[in-house]
Amino acid sequence: MIIGSAVLSVALLGISNFFQSTLRTSGITQSLVQGDYLLEEGMETMKLFRDTGYTNYFKNMSTTTTYYLTWNGTTWATTTTNTFIDGKFERKFTLTDVKRDANSDISSSGTYDPDIKLVTMSVAWSSPIAGTTTRAVKAYVVNIFNN
């Protein structure tokens, strides 16, 4: 009876540890998926800014400032005040001027092109299990509508 109880206890402990590690992994995966969706949403917002007024948004923004996105229930806006999404995720973006060489190719030196910016969007969050995780994506935003 004692041996049977010991074997059953060890088996139940193993199953319990398995479920606990599965829940921990599931939480990490959930944060990764949420972070990726926030990155995608941020880049879609950059496209919305481009489509509704490149000049109003990108030409007036500094390339030395870190910006954050805010949603007021109807429209997106930018702010320089750090905002956290769900009290956990920090989403921010920066802009970089783009230059073109003599062949009109993007290069590190050459003539400044005011109708294109490099957007770097990043999302960071912390968890006690995985530590701090940061995801980032870069994309060029071009004034295709001349607005």
What does this structure look like?
The protein has 147 residues and is of the alpha+beta class. The protein has one domain (33-142). It has one helix and seven strands; from the N terminus they run H-E-E-E-E-E-E-E. The protein has one helix at residues 2-59; strands at 68-71, 76-79, 84-85, 89-100, 106-107, 111-127, 131-142. The longest helix has 58 residues, at 2-59. It is elongated, with a radius of gyration of 23 Å. The model has no long low-confidence stretch (mean pLDDT 90).
Low-confidence stretches: none
Structure summary, number of beta strands: 7
Structural class: alpha+beta
Distance between the termini: 82 Å
Order of SSEs? HEEEEEEE
Helix content: 25-40%
Radius of gyration: 23 Å
Overall morphology = elongated
Mean pLDDT: 90
Q: What are the SSEs and their pairings?
A:
Elements: H1 2-59, E1 68-71, E2 76-79, E3 84-85, E4 89-100, E5 106-107, E6 111-127, E7 131-142
Antiparallel strand pairs: 1-2, 3-4, 4-5, 4-6, 6-7
